Amino acid sequence: MRMIHLAALALIVVFPASAQVAEAPTPRSFKIELDPPGQTSLDPTRACRQGTLSSGPHSTPMSICIEAMSGSALDVSLYIPAANVSEHASLIDRPGAAVAILSDPRYRDFWPVIIHYGGEDGRKFVATALRTRKARAAAVASGTAAGDQVKSLLDGRGRRAVAEAETLSAWGLTAAALAVLDEALPEPDRNGRLSDKAQNRLMGVELRRGGIYRRAGRTQEAIDQYRSIETQSLLDSDLRLNGAVNRAATLAEMGDAAEALALIEAAGRLFAAETGEDVVEGSQRQFDWIRSCALHRLGREEEAKRVIAGTFDRTIASRGIFFIPTNDSIEERYRRCILDKEWFAERLKRDLESPFPHVGLFLFFASDVSNERMPGFAEMSQAMRAESPFADELALFREPPPGWRDLIDNDRRSAIAGDVLRQLKK
To answer: How far apart are CA 68 and CA 87, in angstroms?
Structure first.
């Protein structure tokens, strides 16, 4: 059964879980301490902050660095030599993360690297992201190494198209992103059919098209897009089911709970009937979180709790060629769907207590950083913004430099990126 679920990208976590020291048989409490900002590095392409990771009487050196590599990559990296840990989080298509660091005085020693890389007004940052988009898309690995459920199933042409479209979408260039997806649509053979590989590409491209509509705030077009997948005759029935699941998720998030519940329950019955024992591990989680959210929004909270109980308790690793979304990414979308203020508050407090840049906290409260249209979410985040300790924390951030501030304003970012893309085409 080829079930795809587009889990929302979590904004809270800066570093992946694999950046942590491997679990010991008996869990330990780790403490991370970083040195205060030092003198500005003489190297405009790299700045590091040293520190220690300790557990009880034992400690080991570690460092966090920001690195601009050959004018094409801007990474925040975590190094723990004794544990052989080297993790990198790319900022190149995450202007909000770059602006968050530029706004955080605790990381002022990182600012010169970002400015050197992206320019005084940020336009060089935009130009680099757009100029390198095709090369970066071509470098996306296949299978689980793709780090994304859709791309893990696609052939090379499909992966390249989806990755390039994601970059264009991140910069607000929706029309250009959709055009790239159009070019990757497979053609039926002379019998009017598609091979399994071509069906995967068609499904992946069309699912990502729906996600791009969502990102642009064009929710009804996303719903219509997912509905079109449900009736796409070139796809086998199990693949068409992905349209129903993603449409149900969108409906639940937008508050159309009754329709979402009916749709996801019908999809769940079809899923069970068609798969039998041939099911990708972890697939049931998507039915459970959508159904639970819909029940919650209908006021049936006890039922909602029973449905979701235990869903995120067991880690499910990716295997073979299929990338399986993490519990963390799915739970973040579920908690967002039910507007779980208490859960987000606890999550953000962990970010606040971290010595690393508080990117997640900054972005959560930046009201114009995304085209979030989910009813009630903006009101929830604004209510939390005024509460302690978040109000005190946010007061520490400075106003981003001129030009860079525009990169977390949807309309301005789109206009700047459009202008830069036109210049690159000349």
So the answer is: 15
Surface-to-core class of residue 239, CB atoms within 10 Å of its CB (0-12 exposed, 13-18 middle, 19+ buried): buried
> Residue 59, SS3?
strand
Q: Residue 244 is encoded by which pair of tokens?
A: 């129903």
208 pLDDT higher than 70: yes
Residue 192 region, left (φ>0) first, then alpha (ψ -120 to 50), else beta?
left
Q: What is the pLDDT of residues 45-97, one digit of tens each?
A: 999 999 998 887 888 999 999 999 866 789 999 999 988 888 888 999 999 99
- DSSP E strands: which ranges in 81-208? 85-90
Sequence letter at residue 140: V
CA dihedral (376, 170, 350, 286) in degrees, to 10, reads 70
Closest among 343, 349, 356, 346 to 393, alpha carbons compared: 349
Residue 319 DSSP symbol = B
The enclosing H or E element of 268 equals helix 257-275
- 99 alpha carbon, distance to own chain's centre: 17
**164 contacts 13 by C-beta, under 8 angstroms:** no
Angle at 89 between CA 88 and CA 93, to 5 degrees: 140
Grouping H, G, I as helix, E, B as strand and the rest as coil, residue 75 is: strand
pTM of model > 0.85: yes
Amino acid, res. 45: T
SS3 32: strand
Q: What are phi and psi of 60, to 5 degrees?
A: -145, 145
